[in-house]
Amino acid sequence: MAALVEEKVTWIKHWDDNLFSFRTTRDDAFRFNNGHFVMLGLKVEGKPLLRAYSIASPNYEDFLEFLSIKVQDGPLTSRLQNMEIGDPIFLSKKPVGSLVLDDLNPGRRLFLLATGTGLAPFLSIVKDPEAYERFDEVVLVHCVRFKSELAYHDYFQKEFLEHEYLGEYVREKFRYLPTVTREPFERSMRITELIEKGHLGLDPAQDRVMLCGSQNMLRDVASALDALGYQISPNQGTLGDYVIERAFVET
Ligand SMILES: Cc1cc2nc3c(=O)[nH]c(=O)nc-3n(C[C@H](O)[C@H](O)[C@H](O)COP(=O)(O)OP(=O)(O)OC[C@H]3O[C@@H](n4cnc5c(N)ncnc54)[C@H](O)[C@@H]3O)c2cc1C
């Protein structure tokens, strides 16, 4: 377990039967870029059982936050969903990932397109002051099947607007567009539909995009963006009009 660091769970919030968030303590030496993911998990029969998790808190907080699915027969999350405050949790020491602001060309608007727990890395990006310094607008689209899966919905509509450091930026530049596909809601289109029908008004000359979701979502949304003339960042360190978490497509 030498490459792992042990932290303690400090906060847990269950959103519904399929989703929960939790926070852990954070070692001073644990550094990451907003948008990164880390391997995280539990010791089961003395051995680490780890899965990739996007870090949902920004890198200036003294805690780490995560948003997790509950897979009822999932090796990790069937256990993780039952943990309690004070329980130990293990993290790899080196967060990584390609879903970072640094790899985006300059632009006017930043679109963060997420399905399900793909929201997690964007919770950290929308709290990154750099997002507001680089872009005139930051638009978060969160697409889920059911309303109960709109984790952080109330936070984005109220508390976030009063954020201690970012409130002014957020009120001026942040837009939150939740969309629910399987029950009535104010917005019900899938992300591909929103793009293809022109509802987001995406323009590759000035709008930059970050994508996070399932492999199918990444494939479909990337091809909708490509059809508009978007160029993907081909690898870490090379600029593009949009970025995706490459670990999702490579696993
Ligand atoms: C780069 C990366 C970042 C990730 N970040 C997160 C994150 O922030 N939060 C998170 O909950 N998961 C995230 N995942 C998925 C995560 O690694 C695990 O798959 C998940 O925690 C379930 O673990 P498990 O052992 O219980 O089940 P697994 O055996 O890992 O998965 C069982 C099945 O559950 C489904 N599944 C797994 N994860 C999800 C999910 N997030 N949403 C919907 N269905 C899912 C899939 O069909 C999968 O085959 C990420 C994966 C990658 C590759």
Structural overview:
The strands form two sheets. A six-stranded antiparallel sheet has the order 4-3-6-1-2-5. Strands 9-8-7-10-11 form a five-stranded parallel sheet. The radius of gyration is 18 Å and the shape is globular. The chain folds into two domains: 89 residues, Translation factors (Elongation Factor Tu (Ef-tu), domain 3, Beta Barrel); 150 residues, Rossmann fold (3-Layer(aba) Sandwich), CATH 3.40.50.80. It is an alpha/beta fold and 251 residues long. The chain is built from eight helices and eleven strands. Bound molecules: flavin-adenine dinucleotide. Flavin-adenine dinucleotide binds next to strand 4, strand 5, helix 1 and helix 8.
Short description:
This protein has eight helices and eleven strands. It is an alpha/beta fold.
Low-confidence stretches: none
Ligand roster: flavin-adenine dinucleotide
Q: What is the CA–CA distance across the termini?
A: 23 Å
- Number of helices, counting only DSSP H or I runs of 4 residues or more: 8
Strand order of the largest sheet: 4-3-6-1-2-5
Secondary structure blueprint with pairings:
Elements: E1 4-16, E2 19-25, E3 37-44, E4 47-54, E5 63-69, H1 77-80, E6 88-92, E7 109-115, H2 120-125, H3 129-134, E8 137-144, H4 153-157, H5 167-173, E9 174-180, H6 191-196, E10 207-212, H7 215-227, E11 242-244, H8 246-250
Parallel strand pairs: 7-8, 7-10, 8-9, 10-11
Antiparallel strand pairs: 1-2, 1-6, 2-5, 3-4, 3-6
The structure holds flavin-adenine dinucleotide (FAD).
Flavin-adenine dinucleotide binds at residues 37, 51-54, 66-69, 71, 74-78, 116-117, 120, 245, 247-248, 251.
